[in-house]
Structure formats: structure tokens, C-alpha cells
Please model this.
Amino acid sequence: MNLNIFEFEEELDIAAANDVVKVINENPNAALGLATGETPIGLYQKLVQAYENEQVSFKRVTTYNIDEYAGLGKAHPQSFYSFMKTHLFAKVDLPEGQIHIPNGAALDLEGEVERYEALLKQAGQLDVQILSIGLNGHIGFNEPGRTLHAETHVVPLTEETRQVNSKSFPSLPDVPKQAITMGIGTMIKAKKIVFIAKGEAKAAILKQAFKGPINPLVPGSLLQLHPNLEVYLDVKAAKFLYEG
Ligand code: PGA
Model:
């Protein structure tokens, strides 16, 4: 794991975005794994800027989002598709047909899981996977538990995750109770992982994820197994990771 620590968030966003831009410029047909949440918003802004400055094109890129809420269709304002559209998809030259995200509105969720997993298998190894971590250690919606799934699956969201994510919804009961998530096995098969975390609130879980034992109760700890893991943290998030 390569640890990159920045004093200012913007420096971190620029460095992480440059890493992704480099992957695309080396392989214009790159397959990207994308994450949502507050953490990667700055990275997406910097990717949009790089596109506007003609430093990168998404014309031949394909994207695979790691998760989506069950029950929310693409047009729902809180869907992860809407998030991606707002922060990246509508602002770059990525053709709609090259965007992949689980269909949260599918009536047959297990059928949707199979469809998405088949797409991922067809895509093969993702060139870069962008990830962040939840306060409880989840990666995508791979929630802490006694077992972790390698492949795409339907997951019940923990109450903690629903509480944390309720900030994006009108109220807690509006937060879906289930999601579809890419499995952690697919994520860690990516050629490269660009991992970002910011803020003091994440410091303790980052210590567990990167300094603790590999443990399904801290899904992020699985990332330690990845041979090409670039970790971008601000100083607050990195506070327990300095020494050793
Ligand atoms: P956040 O979410 O970026 O909004 O903190 C991260 C996550 O839950 O994976």
C-alpha cells in the first residue's frame, strides 16, 4: 500500500484525480469502478476540470458503479445514479451506453444481481477502482459481518449506515433498507485501487482497516491484500497511521 497524506483536501483530490487521469490516458478504453458518497465528490470535480482542460476524455471509458439503493430508480434524486450524473456523468463526454450501475428499481433483485455480476465478469479486471470507507468499515455496501461476499449481492443495510446516509434523504424512514453492491472480491481484483478518506471521524476505522488484522468485521481491512493500493488521506484521517 502506498500512503499519500495531504494537508489540504484539494491537494488530495487533485492527486487522486491525476492518478485516475493517468490510467485513462494510458488506456483510453479503461474500465473504471466508481464509488459515491461525500468523499469522492472533490475527486470527481477534479476529473471534470481535467476533461474541461482537455487533459482527458471519457469517450471510450466504461464505468461500473459499486452500489445502488434497492427501490430507487435512476431518476430518484437520492439514487447513486443521480449522484453520479450530478457530479460526473453529465459533465464529461462519457457515452450513456458505457455507464453501468445496478438497477435499484428492478423488481427481481436477485435477477438484477445476476445481470450485474455477468456484466462485471464480461468486463474482466477493472483498470482502476475508486473507493472510500464508511464509518463502520464498509466498502461499497459490503457491511461488517461474519462473512463477506466476493460477488454482487443484495445486502440489508445496517442501522448505522442508514443513520449516516439519512443526511442525504428527507428523513430516516426514507432511507432504503437494502442495496445491491458489488462484492469485495471484484473490487480487490482491480488492477489498481485509488482509495480516499477525509476527516478525523474516519481516523479510527482507518487504523483498524490498515493497521489491524484482516477481518470481515472491518471489510476495508481486505484492501490490505491488494498489491497496487494507492491511499489518499488528509492529515486528519491519517492521524493514527503516521508511524510505522
Ligand atoms: P462518505 O461515505 O464518503 O459519505 O463518508 C463513504 C462510504 O460510506 O463508503
